[in-house]
Amino acid sequence: MKNRLYLLAFLLPLFAVGQDSNFGNWIIYFGNKKIDNKWNLHHEVQYRNYNAIGDLEQLLLRTGLGYNLTENNNNLLLGYGYILSENYVSTTNEKNAVNEHRIYQQFISRQQISRVSVQHRYRFEQRFVEDDFKLRFRYFLGLNVPLNKNELIDKTIYLSAYNEIFLNTKNTIFDRNRLYSGLGYKLNASLKFEIGYLNQFLSGGKNRDQLNLITFFNF
Fold this sequence. Notes:
Elements: H1 2-18, E1 23-34, E2 39-49, E3 56-70, E4 74-88, E5 95-113, E6 116-129, E7 132-146, E8 156-168, E9 174-186, E10 191-202, E11 207-218
Parallel strand pairs: 1-11
Antiparallel strand pairs: 1-2, 2-3, 3-4, 4-5, 5-6, 6-7, 7-8, 8-9, 9-10, 10-11
């Protein structure tokens, strides 16, 4: 019952915001395979919709090979992503499909400050968007705070929040900013679930709101 009350209190403001905005849905899976104490294989699938489900905005497939500089705290990764975007043509119901291949390098650093788990992620992307080539830098700051226990262990309910800024290297420098807050449940060392609200502030002054459903799987 206590878990249900946490979830209800979290969802009410999300749906209130969604009624007055262009509210979409992202279904996200993050997987991480530990090869040994130094190497890991990352993979993810993101299915992004303009509405609740069925109106595809973007399909993102991403993978990468990571190396731990220090155990569990500092990780370097080289990766590849494929992104299919279906963008609406202005003032019409027609869509334009855009294919993107992306190479990226990232560095993740993790810290523990009292009960708060902190993650910094620095990512540099080389983007091949149809016949165009673009470069982009991203900085991600994330926080996890356990609610029913003193640390993120098995069967822990936790708050999750992050902010990520995207910067281009030419033309319009500011690309977008993502602000997220969510409620999570860590079942065990391998599996976590989150439900959350994401606001994207885009270049040009536009805003998009999304409900995020996220699964994290380590194996």
